[in-house]
Write a structure and sequence with these properties.
Number of strands: 2
Number of helices: 8
Structural class: mainly alpha
Strand content: under 5%
Number of domains: 1
Distance between the termini: 33 Å
Mean pLDDT: 85
Oligomer: single chain
Radius of gyration: 29 Å
Order of helices and strands: HHHHHHHHEE
Low-confidence stretches: 1-21
Largest sheet: 2 strands, antiparallel
Length: 217
Amino acid sequence: MMWNVFLALILGAQSPMGAPPPSFPRGGAILASMALPGTGQMMLGSAKRGEGLLWLDGGLWALWTGFSWYGAAREHDAHLYAGREAGADLAQKEPRYYKALERYDNADQYNEGVRSDARDMYPDDPVRQHEYYESHGYFGAQAWNWSSDSARFDYWETRKSGRTAALRAQFAAGALLLNRLASVVDCAFFAGRGGSSTRVEFRPADTEPGIKVCYRF
């Protein structure tokens, strides 16, 4: 956001009050809008539109930062809670480990599911079954045992709120991309040009009765 304001001040300094807007290449304005929406509009003389896009971009960055931070913080809180209430191994980095903590009261239940999967996958090969069980199960320091069902539910709720925040951060990131696309399209076809009435014409259709709309770029 600080960069948005800084760049806006620079562009404003280049165009004194009452002076005509500077003549920038439209290609350069398009590239500027890719990097920071609104700057291309300001370069082409559409200052108010550019300021609006700058403020929108700053707001979206703030949303993305806030949701990303909150999602990571809730996930971290969930890990600490699992370590305290279930004896989980916090050195584990595998996402499936923390997902298993949500679904199973203890590691023994989870390992029984792994054993069942091994039998289904290798019905006639006890050696492969054992290898699968050993590689996918959790034993020793990795094992866990929740103190109560409500503790496991609280853990699930904490992780759920973190996932929701992370999803909203993804939406904010998508909006940032859309804001850049809109700014680029505006710079390419609309910003810094005359009124739309000089570019849009209505003419009779050439081959059949009707009216066609012509847009002059």
